[in-house]
Amino acid sequence: MDSMDYDVIILGGGPAGLTAGLYSSRAALKTLLVERMMVGGQVMTTTKIENYPGFPGGIDGPELVARFHEHCQEFGLEILYGEAQSLNVAGEMKEVTVDGRVLRARAVIVTTGAEPRKLGIPGEQQYAGRGVSYCATCDGAFFKNVPVVVVGGGDTAAEEALFLTRFASKVYLVHRRDQLRATKILQERLFAHDKIEVIWNSTPEQVLGTASGVTAVEIRNRKTGEHRHIETEGVFFAIGVIPKAHFLAELLSLNEEGYIVTDGECGTTVPGVFAAGDVRSKLLKQIATAVGDGAVAAIAAEKYLLEH
Ligand code: NAP
């Protein structure tokens, strides 16, 4: 192996990637984790995590990530900041291109996660960063004492709506059905909050604004066809996520939603390439399951290296 060669390269530094990195470096495998921006992934934009065991009362996302990171450093995990553009598995060593530089490894673990889905309505892209946001914890504080709109009915939408009540004068939650997908405990908190109004069976049709940013959102009731104009400076879309696996579409088997298909040990359709966390097709996408996946993928990679 030359000095640029690794036993394991991990693509992505969220909870799955960091856990795989912890296990792999602790197993004395020469491991490199490649991260595009900053470690932590979606957890970095989460305020309070209440369902990760070991932290009664909850823990803030960035604090949990800092602990994961520090723990990995204890075992000497090497982290490279850059964007993985492609993976080539034709030769004996797998090749990962990161910002034009080729790195080689005997096994690769893909933990690239998922990113917020865009609705694709007029004004959404135009006002992104000027009132349209996909992250309440990042941008919520810009909207003090003004009404805001959250779109979606899942856990993210519910958490974002609740978080935004700290700043906004009122939070409209616009959901396309008459029932939320979010867990019961979040629903109860939402319905009990006097600043939150849920607008059922409705979807936004257009984000309106001026040169200085968003001024309103136009929504339509899917049952009655009625339109409603909500004056607001902030629209937060929380309509789910899409997996970041497109760059691997020609190499790995993806399901119809674009998630990487794996076996029970996080193995993909390519021997020596594993997938863990939110980018993998599975029932439950949470920090606890990402961590479990990361551990399984690292041990499966170690087993693969022993056998090959
Ligand atoms: P999600 O569970 O997929 O929910 C997406 C929501 O957006 C759904 O309510 C969906 O409506 C709505 N939606 C989707 N496409 C839409 C469209 N084109 N127009 C209007 N509405 C649309 O996504 P998420 O809330 O981001 O959560 C992702 C995963 O992370 C889930 O597994 C979730 O449990 C997990 N998560 C967990 C926590 C936690 O445990 N505390 C926190 C955040 C996220 P329908 O309901 O009609 O489909």
- The CATH class assignment of the largest domain is Alpha Beta
Q: List the ions, cofactors and other small molecules found in this model.
A: NADP nicotinamide-adenine-dinucleotide phosphate
Task: Give the class from helix and strand content and strand pairing.
Answer: alpha/beta
State the helicity in percent bands: 10-25%
Mean pLDDT: 96
CATH superfamily of the largest domain: FAD/NAD(P)-binding domain
Q: Predict the CATH topology of the largest domain.
A: FAD/NAD(P)-binding domain
Q: Could you say which overall geometry the principal axes of the C-alpha atoms support?
A: elongated
How many domains is the backbone divided into?
A: 2
Topology:
Layout: E1 5-11, H1 15-26, E2 31-35, E3 48-49, E4 59-60, H2 61-74, E5 78-81, E6 84-88, E7 94-98, E8 101-110, E9 114-116, E10 132-133, H3 136-139, E11 147-151, H4 155-164, E12 170-174, H5 184-192, E13 196-199, E14 202-210, E15 213-221, E16 227-231, E17 234-237, E18 241-243, E19 273-275, H6 287-307
Parallel strand pairs: 1-2, 1-8, 2-5, 8-19, 10-17, 11-12, 11-17, 12-13
Antiparallel strand pairs: 3-4, 6-7, 7-8, 9-18, 14-15, 15-16
Helix pairs in contact: 1-2, 1-6, 4-5
The site of NADP nicotinamide-adenine-dinucleotide phosphate (NAP) has 19 residues, from helix 4.
